[in-house]
Amino acid sequence: MGGRPLGRGRGLQVLPRLFRHLLLPLRIRMSDLAGTYPGMQERTRRPAVVLLLMLLALLAVGAIYGRDFWQSRVQAGEGYTFVADIDRWRRTGRERAVRARFDFSLGPQLQDLPLEIGDWQGADVPQTNIEVLILLEPEQYVYRRYRRSDGKYVWLSIIGSRQAKSFHSPQICYTADGWKTEVASEPIPLQEGEIYGLRLAAEKDHWKHVVLYFYLYPDYLRDANSGTVLFKVTAPLEGSLEETLAVEKAFIREFFESARQ
Q: Which of 30, 102, 186, 256 sits between 20 and 30 A of 119, alpha carbons compared?
């Protein structure tokens, strides 16, 4: 009535003071709470930290499985690509993605691997040890002898299965039969990159064998339901260990082209 109306300029001057007046009690109340409950801010921060850690863990798991899923699918479009490793029970630092010339996925096509490959001529060898097949129960089993034109020869053993009991270290068989054995990791150079196998040197009386073997998986996920394939090459020791290994590696290169981490 006797007061002056709020004009435009007057309102702009009053509004900041009005907001300060409204916010002041809020600041006082928050400061009072912080003073009354010193641990309140810490307790308020703790759930946020836990939530952040959980989110980071989920992102890490997603990155791992995303990489496995993505790489397994992307590589599949480039040919016969598998994951090779020296251990059946755990992933090792020797794991490699390897490109093969043939399909080594678990299936009947394993029986169709060529008998003539490069400078090698192969022949199927009948499995006379039926007990091995009964105990291992492999879904696919290939056992052949390949001879090179210079007279060098190797045995190729391929076991494919979804069961863990179908696979065990060849060292177990040799040791159980009285052989002395030594095992080590062995690089196998390819046209590009390299894969790794386990090298087994076995000796009994006048017999000496050199074995190179590794496991093949369809992708990085290593799902047991997708199957695992054991690729094993055995040769009699002729000359030095390095010379025998060179023969085996040359044979393996007929099947596998390149590898990468």
A: 186
